[in-house]
Amino acid sequence: MTSSEIRPATFDDLPGIQKMMVTGFAATGYADLAPYDPQSGEAVLKGLIVAENAVVLVAVEAAGLVGLLVAVVVPYPWNGSISIAQQLLWWVEPACRTGAGRRLLAGMEEWAIAKGAKLLASSCNEAIGGERATEVYRRRFGFRPIERHVLKGLMQCP
C-alpha cells in the first residue's frame, strides 16, 4: 500500500482534479442524469478552493493526484448555534482505494473540527459501495445512518 499525502488543493491541481471529476461522474451514475461540465466544474472548484467555509482536499501519490474530497461548513438549518460540515464530493481512483479515502475523510474531519463544526454529514454512492459503504461508515468511522439521498431526473439535461 502506498501512503497518500493529503493536502488542500491549489489551482495548479485543477487539471488532475478535472480528470478525476470526469472519471468519477461516469463511475457513480451522476453522468446518466446530469453530465459533468468541465467549465462549470472548474468555476465552482476555484471558488471552493479559496472559500473560507470550504475545503478541497487532494490525495497525492508518486503518480500524481489519486483522490479528492470537497466539503463545506454551514450553520445547521434547524439550530443556528450549531455548524455542520457537509461532504459534497469524495472520489478516489479505484486502484488507490487502500487508504487514500480514509486519509481524505480524516483530513475533512480535522478541518471540520478546526472550523467549529459540531456535526459532519457524508454520503455513500450506491454505484460504488452500496449498503456496504454505509455499514463501513457506521462501524469504522463513527457515522450513524440517518437518511438516504436519492436522485431523480425531471428533464433531459444538455
Can you walk me through this structure?
It is globular and about 35 Å long. The protein has helices at residues 14-28, 30-33, 38-50, 100-114, 130-141; strands spanning 5-8, 54-61, 64-75, 83-92, 119-121. It has a 5-stranded mixed sheet, sandwiched between helices. It is of the alpha+beta class. 37% of the residues lie in helices and 23% in strands. Strand 3 (64-75) and strand 4 form a beta hairpin.
User: Got a strand count?
Assistant: 5
Strand content: 15-25%
Average per-residue pLDDT, rounded, comes to 89
Extract low-pLDDT stretches: none
The termini sit apart by 40 Å
| Structural classification | alpha+beta
Can you count the helices? 5
Q: What is the gyration radius calculated from CA atoms?
A: 16 Å
Helix percentage: 25-40%
Query: What is the 3D shape?
Result: globular
Q: What is the quaternary state of this protein?
A: single chain
Main sheet attributes: strand count, strand direction, barrel closure: 5 strands, mixed
Kindly report the spatial arrangement of strands forming the biggest sheet.
Answer: 1-2-3-4-5
State the order of secondary-structure elements, H for helix, E for strand: EHHHEEEHEH
Q: What distinguishing features does this structure have?
A:
158 residues; alpha+beta; 5-stranded mixed sheet; 5 strands; globular
Layout of helices and strands:
Elements (H helix, E strand, L loop, with lengths): L4 E4 L5 H15 L1 H4 L4 H13 L3 E8 L2 E12 L7 E10 L7 H15 L4 E3 L8 H12 L17
Parallel strand pairs: 4-5
Antiparallel strand pairs: 1-2, 2-3, 3-4
Helix pairs in contact: 1-3
